[in-house]
Each structure stands twice: as structure tokens, then as C-alpha cells.
Design a protein that fits this description.
This protein is α/β, with parallel strands linked by helices. Helices cover 22% and strands 27% of the residues. It holds the Pfam family Lactamase_B_2.
Length: 269
């Protein structure tokens, strides 16, 4: 399983779109891994997780043929994870030479929004509603949506993804996991965990996690033997409000065996 992290920032990006704060100015000057676009990932170039407004940039930077991915799963409908106006560009009037529909799966809000925005182009898509804690076959993968602590007016999901004997917990956007999610994961083993770290050193783990919560979550799963010595723990989805550079984050997380995500990061498991 190859996981490529296409974007690793929270909704505003880093540097934030209109921001002139000290951290955003520093990110502009440092460049490199300090430049972060809105969060998304793709697995084996077939299964895409979320479709942010930066997707067009991701395609250009990564040299991807976007027509090669066949399945799209959405975590929730915040605009930095779900921009259906651009998904509409895959319909016949805009895109040519595509022989199969794109399958889109997500919660009830994702489904209703797709039907509204994609309307007369729906023949280019198949749309499926995910229910929490049910496992679905998505292409060659098994995908289970788990409840997140994030957007209270809809079923926000994190995803447990299994393929070729390997497993990934795609764990954002979320605060500290709900008990139901911990219960479902209690007998699972994870080869990689990609975790919300939006809040950095800010003392908050509601709706989004911080560094302390990521470390505690790693300790919890170690204690319960849900992870093994080769499991990769990766923090992502950073906000400019935390004021931490990529090197700052590495200094805070690497000593605890936690990697820091960056745009374009590739994970092979």
C-alpha cells in the first residue's frame, strides 16, 4: 500500500491565504516543507481521500493523472475537504476520454450535496452513503468509516482502510476519539496511523487534536497492542495558528516516535 499525502494543512493553508502573521511570513521565506496546502491523500493512485480546493494544484505538483483514480471517499463537508464544484469538472462536458464513473462515498451530507451540485452530470458518478462502523468494499480496499469528534451536525468520519494485508487509520479531522470508535478499534492492528494535530501546543483536543493528544493516543494504542514496533505514526493537518515550523514540529514529535507530515510525503507499508 502506497499512501501519498497531497496536502497537510488545516482550512486556511500555510501560509494562510490572506494572513500576514509572523508565522505565515516565516513560512513564505523558508518555503519547502513549511508550505502546506489543504489536506488530502491518495492510496495506490486509485483511492483518493477528500477533494479540497487545492486538488488542481496537487495534480500539477505531483504530476498525477487524475483520471486514474476511480474512488473518492470524503471525511466531511467542510470546504477544505470537500469542494464538489471542482468534482463536477469530471463530467462529460468538461472531461473527455474517461471510460468509467467516479465512485464517491461519504456521509448523508456528502451524498445530498453531490446530488445538488453535480445534478445533471450525475451519469459521470456513482454515489454511495456510508454508515458508521460498517465495512465497505471500495475498489480493492476494505473501508470502514468511524465516528469522529469534529462536525456535530453530520457524521464526520475517520477511516480504517485495509488492503493487501495492511491497514491504515486515517485519523482526521477529529478531536479525541469517541468511545464508540475506540471500541471498534479495540481488536484491530494498524500499520500506519495518520493523526490530526491541528492545534499543536494549543491546549485543546475538542474537534481537533493537539500534540499532547497525539502522543497520548499513541501511548493508548501501544498499551492496547493495536500497534507494533514498525507502525508509523504521522501527525498532520496543521494550522498556522500554532506558529510552529516543520523543524519545530519535528523537534516536538520525533523524540516520541511520531513523524511530521509534509506535502508530497510518500508512505509505503
Amino acid at each position: 500500500m502506497e499512501i501519498r499525502l497531497l496536502g497537510t494543512a488545516a482550512a486556511e493553508g500555510i501560509p494562510a491565504l490572506f494572513c500576514q502573521c509572523e508565522h505565515c511570513e516565516r513560512a513564505r521565506k523558508l518555503g519547502g516543507k513549511n508550505i502546506r496546502t489543504r489536506t488530502s491523500a491518495i492510496i495506490d493512485r486509485e483511492l483518493k481521500i477528500d477533494f479540497p480546493p487545492d486538488t488542481f494544484m496537487h495534480i500539477l505538483i505531483e504530476g498525477m493523472e487524475i483520471s486514474t483514480f476511480q474512488h473518492l471517499i470524503i471525511t466531511h463537508t467542510h470546504h477544505d475537504h470537500f469542494f464538489p464544484e471542482d468534482i463536477k469538472m469530471r463530467s462529460e462536458i468538461y472531461a473527455h476520454g474517461i471510460e468509467y464513473p467516479l465512485s464517491i462515498s461519504g456521509n448523508e451530507s456528502v451524498v445530498s450535496t453531490c446530488k445538488k451540485v453535480l445534478n445533471h452530470t450525475l451519469q459521470a458518478f456513482t454515489i454511495q452513503e456510508f454508515k458508521p462502523f460498517q465495512t465497505y468494499k471500495v475498489g480493492k480496499a476494505q473501508v470502514t468509516p468511524l465516528k469522529a469528534d469534529h462536525k456535530p451536525d453530520e457524521n464526520s468520519y475517520i477511516y480504517f482502510i485495509e488492503k493487501n494485508g495492511k491497514s491504515c487509520l486515517y485519523g482526521h479531522d477529529t478531536g479525541w476519539f469517541p468511545n464508540e470508535t475506540f471500541d471498534w478499534l479495540s481488536d484491530k492492528t494498524m500499520d500506519v496511523m495518520i493523526l490530526d494535530c491541528t492545534n499543536g501546543l494549543i491546549d485543546s483536543r475538542k474537534n481537533h487534536m493537539n500534540i499532547a493528544a497525539v502522543k497520548q493516543l499513541k501511548e493508548t494504542f501501544e498499551k492496547n497492542r493495536n500497534i507494533h514496533q514498525d507502525t508509523r505514526i504521522i501527525a498532520t493537518h496543521f494550522s498556522h495558528n500554532i506558529g510552529l515550523t516543520h523543524k519545530d514540529l519535528e523537534a516536538l514529535l520525533h523524540p516520541h516516535g511520531i513523524d511530521v507530515a509534509y506535502d508530497g510525503m510518500k508512505i509505503d507499508i
